[in-house]
Amino acid sequence: MEEDNVYNYSDFVYKAIQEPNLLLGIGVVPAMFILVFTIILINLVSLYCVIIGVILFLVAKKICKKDPHMLSILFEKIMEPEVWRA
Prior knowledge:
single chain, mainly alpha, two-stranded antiparallel sheet, 4 helices, 2 strands, 5% strand, extended
């Protein structure tokens, strides 16, 4: 079976649509969450909380190394309400 690329579709698909929207190697939502969390910690505790933000960013980058959407999927599952519908 051939590997999917932009030339295997019947209609032309732009390559920019297929690429994930990343901010320094991780998704935009996790990056903004880390940024806001770090700013809140800086305001509440001290300027040394920047180190915590850098550590969180490096951990997030390590998690997203193979799958750039891993943290976005994780955040979606955590924020999903546990409502059972029948």
